[in-house]
Design goal:
With 211 residues, the protein is of the alpha+beta class. 44% of the residues lie in helices and 31% in strands. The chain has four helices and eight strands; from the N terminus they run H-H-H-H-E-E-E-E-E-E-E-E. It has helices at residues 2-16, 20-28, 35-48, 52-106, and strands at 109-110, 123-129, 135-143, 146-151, 154-158, 164-175, 180-192, 195-206. The protein has a five-stranded antiparallel β-sheet, with helices on one face. A three-stranded antiparallel β-sheet has the order 6-7-8. Strand 3 (135-143) and strand 4 form a beta hairpin. Helix 1 packs antiparallel against helix 2 (20-28).
């Protein structure tokens, strides 16, 4: 009891150094009535830090957030790779189909002796004319999984991208007394970063060069 009174007086005395008005105001608020209870709890709380249970909870929350972030990142990467595979597949199919359609329509007949019809891999040799009007040939054939084109016996290059492979190429000749046509069956496989996708493409084009 005497110690509490002594502490109270000493703290009031210290506050009086700040000014009599401040000391009187603090004394009226009874700030120093129970000094030990006022400040001992805060001192103990500030010194103890985080408990083991709190650290475990924080670590678990951090682990969950890390897993979610990593999964979202890998999902984005996979989606982008799938998008690129789809783009390669559709781009190659559109490019070669457009070229085949243009060349077949311009041709006046099929060279049956130089063509491989109804088999896989097939070969299509068209009898057509060049820009000057001279007779020439256009060939479509598969080599090492790539669909290539020749014009007048000279290789003009590949019609598919490096990431796309031709796994099926079959051409057939269709004819009637009035017209001739070429039916083609094509299967492409595109692959990037362990992700692959395949697609089948069909087309039937009428030869118009002989009209």
């Amino acid at each position: 009891m005497k110690r509490q009174k002594y502490l109270k007086k000493s703290r009031i005395a210290k506050c009086e150094n700040l000014g009599p008005r401040v000391a009187k105001y603090l004394h009226s608020l009874n700030v120093f009535a129970q000094p030990d209870r006022k400040f001992s709890h805060f001192a103990i709380w500030s010194k103890k830090g985080f408990s083991l249970m709190e650290m475990i909870i924080y670590a678990a929350i951090l682990a969950v957030l890390t897993i979610v972030t990593v999964n979202a990142t890998f999902s984005s990467i996979k989606s982008f790779a799938e998008f690129r595979v789809d783009r390669d597949l559709n781009s190659s199919a559109a490019s070669l189909m457009e070229r085949m359609t243009r060349e077949i329509r311009a041709a006046h007949s099929i060279d049956l002796t130089q063509s491989s019809l109804g088999v896989n891999p097939g070969r299509l040799t068209l009898l057509t004319k060049d820009l000057s009007g001279a007779d020439t040939t256009v060939e479509f054939y598969v080599e090492n999984g790539t669909l290539k084109i020749k014009e007048g016996g000279a290789t003009m290059g590949a019609l598919t991208s490096s990431s796309t492979a031709v796994t099926n190429f079959i051409v057939r000749s269709l004819s009637n007394p009035k017209s001739s046509a070429v039916k083609s069956e094509l299967r492409l496989t595109a692959a990037r970063g362990g992700i692959s996708k395949s697609g089948n493409f069909y087309t039937t084009i009428v030869l118009r060069g002989g009209y």
